[in-house]
Amino acid sequence: MRVAARLTDADRPIDLFVNNAGFGVHATLTGADVASIHEHAFDVMCRAVLILAGAAGRAMRERGSGSIINVSSIAGLVTMGSYSAIKAWVASYSQGLAVELRNTGVTVTALMPGWVVTEFHERAGIRTGSIPSFMWIEASTLVKGALRDAARGKVVSIPTVRYRVIGWFARHLPLRTIRWISAKISSSRSDEGSEPHGVKDTTTT
User: Fold this and answer.
1) Is the pTM of this model over 0.70?
2) Which residues have a catalytic role annotated?
3) What CA–CA distance (Å, rounded) separates 95 from 63?
4) Is the distance from CB of 150 to CB of 157 less than 8 angstroms?
5) Domain segments of the chain: what residues?
6) Looking at domain 2-197, does it have CATH number 3.40.50.1980?
């Protein structure tokens, strides 16, 4: 892969690598098109993270310095289809990579944002009218916090106090309660006018 080759180019070292490519998934887990849609999601948001973060980690370990930020999501702590499963994988993988690269000078951070003010939701066809205004955070706040946590070597970064509190409850509430909350969120986000069995690409680099 060209990106992996660039990450391992010793003549052009990269000090900070951010895995942030992704898109909104609108497919049910039981749909007839489950294979193509969800496999594409796994390719972009799991397989690419595995390959590229691994490449970056190897190159940075050889130099003895560097930082990797993999964008997960607070959604990885709930149960909203394959998107939650994918983001849970990113968080777990990132922590495993951090363990592997400990004491090498390379840091790995799983960034787990909540609702961020970007074009992502509009492009993904996600209805956001029911989301309270206090749940939204600015992209600049997210970036500032992520870079600060990465510089400190923090392995899991959850921006803002309110989302850290939400994350604590998501990790400690009974699983059946988490599933009930997830169903409520999924219902409020669904948009009959969108594409319920497809994807809308919102890839960023």
Assistant:
1) yes
2) 83
3) 21
4) yes
5) 2-197
6) no
